[in-house]
Structures are given as C-alpha cells and as structure tokens.
Amino acid sequence: MAAIAFLGLGVMGSAMAANLVKQGFAVQGWNRTPARPTVAIARAAGVTIAPDVTQAVTGAAAVFTCLGNGEDVATVVQRALPAIASGIPIVDCSTIGPTVAQQIAAQLAPSGHVFIDAPMSGGDVGARNGTLTFMVGGNPTAIALVEPYLRAMGQAVHVCGPVGAGQAVKLCNQVLAALNTLAVAEALALATKLHLDPHQVVAVCSGGAAGSWSLQNLGPRMVNRDFAPGFSVDNLVKDLQLVQAAAEGLALPGLALVTQTYQNLQADGKGALGTQAVGDNLEGVG
C-alpha cells in the first residue's frame, strides 16, 4: 500500500496523521520545524518522519497539507510538486479562503495535479478523537479517492461543491465559532457576577438550547483558566480577516465586534494562547 504524505505536523496535523496510522494507513510526515514537540507525538504514533518534503511526498497515494495560511500552503506545495506524480490528489486542510484555494488549483491544473480543499472543524479535541467535520471542495471523482482518508480522521465529510466551496463553508463556520466562543465567555462572566458555580452553568446550559461545542469544550477551560492553544488567537484572527475580505460590502456587526475583540487579545500579547483566552479579558471568568 502506497503511503499518504502529511505535510504540517502541528497540533492538528500531528493528531490527524496519527489517526490515519490507527486506521491502518502508512503515513510519511514532514514539518517545517522538525524539533516541534508535536512531531515527536506523530512519530510515537507510528508516523514516519521524513527529513525533507521531497522524501515525504515521493510515491505517495495522496498528499495532505495542514499549514498556517495560504502563502504557506502555496509555498510548500510548490516545493513538493516535482516529486508528486501527476494525478495524485493534493488535499489541503488549512483555512486559506476560497480565492487562494482556487488560485492554487489553477496553478496545479496544467501539470495534471488535482487540488482539493478540505478545511475542518472540531478543534484539537476532534483532531485527537478522530471526530472532525470536513468541508470539501473539488472534483467529485478525486474527492471519492481521498474520502476513506478523510473518514479515518473525522466523523463527517461534506462535499460542498467545486474547489473553494469547502473554504467558503469554513468561513461561515468561523463566524459561528468565534461569536459563540465570545458568548460563552460573556455568559461565564455573568455567572460569576451572579455568584453562580460556573461549572454548573456550563453543565446546565450545555443540555439546553444554548448548548454548543464551544460551551462544552471551551467553557470548562475558561473556568479553569486553561488557555493552552488547541486553536490559537492568532489563527482565529487570520481566519476572521479572510471572512472580512470575503464579506466585503456586507454589514456583519457581530463579525466586526468579535474580530476587534480578538485583535485586542493580540495587542495584549495573547496571540499564541487558545481562543478560549477571550475569557481572560472579561472580568470575573474563572
């Protein structure tokens, strides 16, 4: 069985690659920063760590990328391209926006390479547990080839349309996620002011109409003042800026508010913290 190449072994990528191994796939991984602790986690899970990107993709049945932004994806793919056989699907799981996804796909098409955008939702918890939701854009035949790999890493695979459609849905997802996380922080600040047990508030509200992934997963972290990054403030601001660009001309006051709130966190030196750190800037949370 030909191996799968996985380029980008950060918090998300290392866990995703590990789940591919758990499901019986051989994985050749590569990371731009080989000394990063998450690379060691991937290696311990059975991922073969390649010394360079060319070796990682050589002979691969599919190439996955999980990187920081569109520029990173374009650069890494171009570096790897000479060693990727024509027709091999290149699947990007980063959040880069629909325009950049379409540009990369157009650049790859003349050489016969197929680009699929497959951003995901579910956070570090979903990456570790193999319960991610993938939003996929691309050629249906190519998507069918990589769907078994996606299902090894996630619980849901949604084909959203042509290249860029997965990214477009992900931008909608990020608006929901960011505003919901801010709402959780505000609710917990209110609970503390009202002398309630915030843990109980999380438990009670999680079972009702206000229940959400952010409340169940990030609420307890806010209460415990655990701001370790599963998904960082810096990455969320990058995503929200992609949303703002895509929504140009559309009045979205909640988007403006939550973007400014997270930019304030960056200005306070908290960009490397998890998005739940928004609770740290609200009096009374925890």
Q: Quick gist of this model?
A:
By secondary structure, the protein is an alpha/beta fold.
Describe this structure in words.
It is built from twelve helices and nine strands. The radius of gyration is 19 Å and the shape is globular. α8 packs across α10. It is of the alpha/beta class. The strands form two sheets. A six-stranded parallel β-sheet has the order 3-2-1-4-5-6, with helices on both faces. The mean pLDDT is 96. 51% of the residues lie in helices and 13% in strands.
Tertiary shape:
globular
Q: Major sheet: size, sense and barrel closure?
A: 6 strands, parallel
* The CATH top-level class label of the largest domain: Alpha Beta
Based on the structure given, which CATH architecture of the largest domain is correct? Answer: 3-Layer(aba) Sandwich
Mean pLDDT: 96
- The order of strands across the largest sheet is 3-2-1-4-5-6
Q: State which percent range the strand residues make up.
A: 5-15%
Offer a few descriptive terms.
single chain, N-(1-d-carboxylethyl)-l-norvaline Dehydrogenase, domain 2, alpha/beta, 6-stranded parallel beta sheet, 12 helices, Rossmann fold
What's the arrangement of secondary structure elements?
Layout: E1 4-7, H1 11-22, E2 27-30, H2 37-44, E3 48-49, H3 53-57, E4 62-65, H4 70-80, E5 89-92, H5 98-108, E6 114-117, E7 120-121, H6 123-129, E8 132-137, H7 140-153, E9 154-161, H8 165-193, H9 198-206, H10 213-223, H11 233-246, H12 253-267
Parallel strand pairs: 1-2, 1-4, 2-3, 4-5, 5-6, 8-9
Antiparallel strand pairs: 7-8
